[in-house]
Amino acid sequence: MFLAGQVGWDQTERFHSPDFVVQLRQLLLNIRSILTAGGAGPEHIVRMTWFIVDKAEYLASLKEVGAAYREILGRHYPAMSVVVVKDLIEDGARLEIEVTAVVPS
């Protein structure tokens, strides 16, 4: 499965908060939901690319980022890259994550 860049908004395409960790939590829930709909789970993720707009904000939130990740996706740690970008397409998005998952047939 190849998940295009996901952002931390709800099903109405609204962000509940400009807070990095709040958006991350929703984004991870969205990823888990998409995986489940495709017959996969977090354990099938083999690669994640994170696009963030503020390096300092990300680094200051690492403890909360790790806690949210473990709570929502568990203790499966695929290959990950974090890329700092100037901006994202969706106004108000603090981060975006692309996911590749390998689902056995």
Describe the structure.
The structure is a single chain. The longest helix is centred in the first third of the chain and has 18 residues, at about 20-35. This protein has a four-stranded mixed beta sheet, with helices on one face. The radius of gyration is 13 Å and the shape is globular. The protein is α+β, with helices and mostly antiparallel strands and about 100 residues long. The chain has three helices and four strands. α1 (about 20-35) packs parallel to α3 (about 60-75). The model has no long low-confidence stretch (mean pLDDT about 95). It has helices at about 20-35, 55-60, 60-75; strands spanning about 1-5, 45-50, 80-85, 95-100. It has one domain: 2-Layer Sandwich (60s Ribosomal Protein L30, Chain: A), CATH 3.30.1330.
Please give a quick description of this structure:
With 105 residues, the chain is of the alpha+beta class. The protein has a single domain (2-101), classed as 60s Ribosomal Protein L30, Chain: A.
Topology:
Blueprint: E1 2-6, H1 20-37, E2 45-52, H2 55-60, H3 62-73, E3 79-84, E4 95-101
Parallel strand pairs: 2-3
Antiparallel strand pairs: 1-4, 2-4
Helix pairs in contact: 1-3
Record keyword descriptors for this entry:
single chain; about 100 residues; 60s Ribosomal Protein L30, Chain: A; 4 strands
